[in-house]
């Protein structure tokens, strides 16, 4: 067909093709990406030679191609008018007068497998925290998700209550992941096991189900979060975000200052080492901290290095202050 069209291109003749398979017509008229690769590749090749609009249906008994595929003797072939002249209606065929038919098929349809992933609440919270580079962003994103999932019709900015609820959910999620046994025992009214790594903190659970340091500051006149800071597991994304936030709020302070600022609200397990490790990754601190150079000292005088008799070399050390009269330089 491609060679025939190439020969007839200058005569501006429309070339039509007939096929006796409605399934093939359905393939040609359907979207290519719907079929399996074997069919799709061949449909693309056929359409490049002749578009689907120029293909028509012919009954099998009127298809000359069947004469060759089914086999004929030489004497039968000589008298076979269908082979030599084609169908009787072909010479008078007018494409414009034909009613357009739509062909479709479900043969060799590519199967689309739909995979539905259902995430639990803890997995959603963890994904939100893992994808953010700031604790403030993570809290705000989760607060918007909570407003959407609870179908809260409240408009406008996020409230302090919504932000606190989102932050508490993040802390609780990471605490359950690391200290599930301790939390379970405390809710049952039992003490924490001596083998637990937070046994020395005498942990308690507040009214928001957050695990906090017990301590001995219950009667201190300070902020409640400073009395009982929330216990945060180390080597987690939440711990990294807390350290980064404290480091920025202290204007890129050192490890001690950052740790002291963190402990006003949180108690990181192994917080000193984690803070030092995180601060070493701060690009601004590494860029601004100068490299200290050690000054090369001069040679010692001979009186300090060579032996001599006592009091052969003497020096005077002034004690107390020396009065100096200030003047304009004259």
Automatic annotation (TrEMBL):
<dbReference type="InterPro" id="IPR041588">
    <property type="entry name" value="Integrase_H2C2"/>
</dbReference>
<dbReference type="Pfam" id="PF17921">
    <property type="entry name" value="Integrase_H2C2"/>
</dbReference>
<protein>
    <recommendedName>
        <fullName>Integrase zinc-binding domain-containing protein</fullName>
    </recommendedName>
</protein>
<feature type="domain" description="Integrase zinc-binding">
    <location>
        <begin position="236"/>
        <end position="290"/>
    </location>
</feature>
